[in-house]
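Lab notebook, bench 4. Still working through the backlog of constructs that have no structural model yet. Next entry is a single chain of 225 residues. Request: give me the structure tokens for it.
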Amino acid sequence: MAGHPAGNMKPSLIEALAQDSGGQSLLSHFTECKYHKRHLLFIPYHKENLIFLVKQGRLRVYLALRGKEISLAILGPGDVYSTHTRAHVEALEDTTILTCPIDTFLIHANQQNTLIAALMGSVGRLMTGAISTIENLYFNCADKRVAVYFYEQAASLGQEVKEGIYVKIGLTVDNIAKIVGSSRQTVSTLLSSMEKAGIIKKLNRGEYIVRDMRELFLLANSCSE
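Model written out:
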């Protein structure tokens, strides 16, 4: 199996706060909560108005209406979100979060420049993800959405290795299907086709090598009118 470089990981928001006395004081107002995979943490307009930080694991933020779902974002360690929204929040794997009443948070956060900057970055990532989701669902054919998703993941998060671009998506085929708004069978078929064509290579669960970024780009942009 091809390896991948470790890289220089930046400290997460929680780690950054833990290194600062003011940040430690703010963190003391948070409560740690643990959830198992597939647990639905929050539903729209949760009765408690909380802000939460992801300490470990991954969460899916999505809208649901009449049996249909639209994924808005995948939250990982260091990301920030709130409960009092129209979205559902589901654990994609065993997850630990830190929660705090938003009123308490606002009182203590005003003087934490590090936190404010991180919050702005998190909001920016959420907006970018939501816009990408809308573009993919509206403008692309169903059988091309997987290619678009893989190309964006490789372009933004991929690391160069000998065989191509290593990308750790960290999601099951079922979860990828939910994100791109397609069926599990369609996604599985497309992944198999791309692997047979030499465009991608599956390493482990949720880990891939994109062997031909140009072909993946062409596939992602070949939707007919």
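Notes after review: The CA atoms of residues 15 and 78 lie 8 Å apart. The first helix runs from residue 13 to 18. Flag for follow-up if needed.
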